[in-house]
Amino acid sequence: MKKLSLFFTVLLSSASMLTAQMVSEGIPAETNVPAAQYPAVDKDSRATFIIKAPEALQVSVDICGKKWPMIKDENGVWSVTTDPLVVGFHYYFLIIDGVSVSDPASETFYGCGRMASGIEIPESKEAATYYSYQKDIPHGQVREAYYYSSIENAQRRCFVYTPAEYETHPEKKYPVLYLQHGMGEDERGWSQQGKMNFILDNQIAAGTCVPMIVVMDYGNCGYIYGAKPGETRDQFGASFTPILLQDIIPAIEKHFRVLTDRENRAMAGLSWGGHQTLQTTLPNLDRFAHIGVFSGALMLMHGADLKTLYNGVFADADAFNQKVHTFFIGMGSEEGMGSNEISESLKKIGIENIYYESKGTHHEWLTWRRCLNQFLPLIFKKP
Question: Across the chain, how many H-helices and E-strands are there?
């Protein structure tokens, strides 16, 4: 019971409780809860974490799998300052006496198959402009919507972005992008971690992409593969495709003013959501004309005869290129997923595609923000 009570009494230390040795220069992370001074990020992208846990015997912070041991002072306050971290968004946990918990000083985000703490290591203001809130432009809305799935016989939830002009142009219909999260995440990811609404707002205001509706749904892969005994890789998240085709698209077309032809329907996804995008769109090119794959979801193609995949959809390059107006493949330069090699292999057999590489980023949300930012100007443009 002693350990259990510890986790209910862990408190965020205030700055007045810290010794001078514990304080590093920096500003509170934008992902902190209100009034929390730590975690703090300094000018060199180092993060300082603070937690008061006087009865704990061992505490560390786990940032994307790398663990940083924390040191306790005479007041029972544990702290650590990391080495410089890669810019972008990172999930993290506190490990207190062997138990992984969320940091009470951090907002929580659904990732890693559970609610997790998150920290944003900021880029320069200039580099982050495209996904930052701009006060002088119109802003769209991200709506929480519910519908009934005839396949699951259950209520489901999605988030729907509508552009700022949606309310003022009541007769206008819009193209739709179905945008998917990755393994261990859910339908909240793109609007919370991904900042997709600001990316859309900024591009629409600048005229670099057309106004569109974006639908973000749960991809049935919100746990980590292997958590369900006996589930194969082919089965993981596979139930999402029929739900999208038979439940989600009809619900969106019923309740929102959207264009319903294939020319005005796109799908994109990150990581496993990219795999789901291929699994959904390539066998159904009569329903999708724009495809986006962000970060390594094409890894399943390595070593395969490309012309035999997906019932031979790549066998006739001319037919494919005529149907698919946008085929975008992107990843971070530090991922090592081989998406660049697959892009080149597809080009060699005549399949037109656009490859983008996010410089200096890994398998994380900054890569996917950049991919989305590159993808949006390409879609729904008249051929």
Answer: 9, 19
> Is position 383 within any domain?
no
Is 297 a residue whose pLDDT tops 60?
Answer: no
Q: Which residues pair with 270 in a beta bridge?
A: 294
Q: For residue 250, is the peptide bond before it cis, meaning its omega torsion is within 30 degrees of 0?
A: no
Residue 81 and residue 17 in one domain? yes
Token pair 């959501």 in the structure block, residue: 273
Tally of domains within the chain: 2
Whose tokens are 């991919």? That residue is 371
Dist CA 82 CA 69 (whole Å):
10
Structure tokens at 168: 């003022």
Pick from 12-26, 54-68, 166-180, 299-313: least confident: 12-26
What are the two backbone dihedrals, phi and then psi, of residue 23, each rounded to the nearest 5 degrees?
Answer: -90, 125
Give the separation between CA 106 and CA 109, rounded to whole angstroms: 9
For residue 15, the model assigns a pLDDT of: 36
Q: What is the pLDDT of residue 20?
A: 34
Give the CATH number of the domain where residue 294 resides: 3.40.50.1820
Structural domain contains residue 345: yes
Q: Model confidence over 345-376: pLDDT tens digits?
A: 999 999 999 999 999 999 999 999 999 999 99
Q: Which domain-ending residue is among 121, 155, 189?
A: 121
Helix-helix angle 196-206:365-375, to 10 degrees: 30
Q: Are residues 276 and 149 in the same domain?
A: yes
DSSP string, 234-286: TTTTTTHHHHIIIIIHHHHHHHS-B--SGGGEEEEEETHHHHHHHHHHGGGTT
130-167 residue pLDDT tens: 999 999 999 999 999 999 999 999 999 999 999 999 99
In terms of domains, do 108 and 139 share one?
A: no
Question: What is 81-103 written as a DSSP string?
Answer: EPSPPPSEEEEEEEEETTEEE--
Residues 284, 369 within the same domain: yes
- How far apart CA 132 and CA 200 sit, in angstroms, is 11
Q: Which domain holds residue 63?
A: 2-121
pLDDT digits (tens, 9 = 90+) for 269-282: 999 999 999 999 99
How far is the C-alpha of 85 from the C-alpha of 142, rounded, in Å?
Answer: 30
3-state secondary structure of 313: coil
